[in-house]
Amino acid sequence: MKVVVQRVAKAGVSVEGKNISSIGKGYLLLVGIGSNDTETEIEYVAGKIAKLRIFPDDNDKMNKSVIDISGDILAVSQFTLYGDISDGNRPSFTKAMEPVKAQAYFDQFVSRLSALIGKEVKKGVFGAHMEVELTNDGPVTIIYER
After folding, report:
1. Fold category of 2-145 in CATH
2. Percent helix / strand / coil, the chain, rounded to 5
3. Is 94 one of the catalytic residues?
4. 79 catalytically annotated
5. pLDDT digits (tens, 9 = 90+) for 64-116
6. Catalytic residue among 78, 93, 94, 108, which?
7. How far is CA 78 from CA 23, 59, 123, 125, in A?
8. Is 80 tagged catalytic?
9. DSSP states of 70-123
10. Is the pTM of this model over 0.90?
11. Residue-wise pLDDT tens digits, 43-73
């Protein structure tokens, strides 16, 4: 599983020009599910992200989590995180999980994360062509892979 965590002031997702989801201060997550991922990875990564401390405390040190600041999360599925360009210039996506199973795992990830942070995690539309807008805060970007 690969997740790009971006600390944002705001973020949103549109499909065909229609705003699907938007958030204020929090995380924009780009989520890739790998072909070998299991429910164990889903649970573990959700826990790591819920507890991730990348918001500043009173001393301007990254010491607060999204829970601590009552922040929002927007999760966007992105199988292209598994794009492999080691052979040639056109990416291969054979390491990404097949779509039906990946959607179930993505939904499970969002559900688990919602439970952990105590509020709804917003999301894009799985498999759709999405336009993602964000205002990076920092910028702070963490890439997590398990």
Report:
1. D-tyrosyl-trna(Tyr) Deacylase; Chain: A; (3.50.80)
2. 25, 40, 35
3. no
4. yes
5. 999 999 999 999 999 999 999 999 899 999 999 999 999 999 999 999 999 99
6. 78
7. 18, 35, 12, 10
8. yes
9. T-EEEEEE-GGGG-B-SSSSSPB-TTBPPHHHHHHHHHHHHHHHHHHHTSPPEE
10. yes
11. 999 999 999 999 999 999 999 999 999 999 9
